[in-house]
Amino acid sequence: MIDTAARLKGYPVSLESELRDAANEHGYRIGPEQAAGWIFFRSASAPGEVALAATAAGMEGPFFLSVEHPGAAREIAAERAFPPAKGHAAALAFPDRASLFEGVRSVYRLSLSLPTLPYEQYLKETEHLGDTEADRIQKIRIGQNRFRDALLTYWHSCCPLTGISNPELLRASHIVPWADCESDEQRLDVHNGLLLSSLWDAAFDAGLVTFDEMGRAIASPRLCSNAAAELRMESAPPLSLTDEHRGRLKWHRDKVWQGGP
User: Fold this and answer.
1) Nearest to 139 by CA among 188, 198, 181, 180
2) CA 249 to chain centre
3) Rg over CA atoms, the chain
4) How far is Cα of residue 77 from the mean position of the Cα atoms in its chain?
5) Cβ 158 vs Cβ 169: under 8 Å
6) Is residue 110 a contact partner of residue 69, using CB atoms and an 8 Å limit?
7) CA atoms of 196 and 159, how far apart (whole Å)
8) C-alpha to C-alpha distance for 213 and 63, rounded to whole angstroms
9) Preceding amide of 132 cis, omega within 30
10) In what order do the strands lie in the sheet with 63-67?
11) Which of 49, 51, 148, 166 has its CA 20 to 30 A from that of 90?
12) What is the largest CA-CA distance in the chain?
């Protein structure tokens, strides 16, 4: 773990401009504010503050990114640094400018899609609705749209199994189905979903495929050979999963997957 104490306490104009670009180009346009060697930024659309820091006057790195959003910080694949900015969940270290820019972009993307933002957006959009049948149908439609938007953001608008990125061919697949969820928060939780191409979605929804703890696809004995060939089961890459995904996929294996003969 890298010690963030190596960060500069004051920044030349050129370096501050580069750090501002790293934030501004990826959704964090409110700021900057400086304190204790960190340059702070916020977003009008994504929850949570970020702070950037450098260890040298040039752009040779390493650089630090401090993240307030605990879920986003947890999912970023970067070396941890310590301590983070005051009140933040974690700090991350990046060896160069390009990786820093990618780190900020990923934090913004995750902050938009991770709980509880989709649920909060849903509550705001449905606060004027009552409990008539028409209102309930509209709430479901709004919730499904929020869920799809969150999955598109989380999975980079691309099916992780096929690489398909045409929105018309992508489906927001619930792991625990909408009707079986215990609350709207669970229904709109990005960790309760996968962004799949239409054929993978149909197979997953029918229990003809599922995924193990490592994210590897498992075919049901009932999946015909032609379908397995179309899905390219043997070459499908493993999904990148969190523990939250794994818990729900266990439910899918137990309750939905057709694992019997």
Assistant:
1) 188
2) 17
3) 21
4) 12
5) no
6) yes
7) 5
8) 33
9) no
10) 2-3, 79-82, 90-94, 63-67, 50-54, 38-42, 30-35
11) 148
12) 68
pTM for this prediction: 0.83
The owner of tokens 């608008």 is 157
- Block residue for tokens 């239409």: 198
* pLDDT for the residue 258: 95
Q: Are 236 and 219 in contact (CB under 8 A)?
A: no
3-state secondary structure the chain: CEEHHHCCCCCCHHHHHHHHHHHHCCCCCEEEEEECCEEEEECCCCCCCEEEEECCCCCCCCEEEEECCHHHHHHCCCEEEECCCCCCCEEEEECCHHHHHHHHHHHHHHHHHCCCHHHHHHHHHHCCCCCCHHHHHHHHHHHHHHHHHHHHHHCCCCCCCCCCCCHHHEEEEECCCHHHCCCHHHHCCHHHEEEEEHHHHHHHHCCCEEECCCCCEEECCCCCHHHHHHHCHHHCCCCCCCHHHHHHHHHHHHHCCCCCC
Q: Are 205 and 172 in contact (CB under 8 A)?
A: no
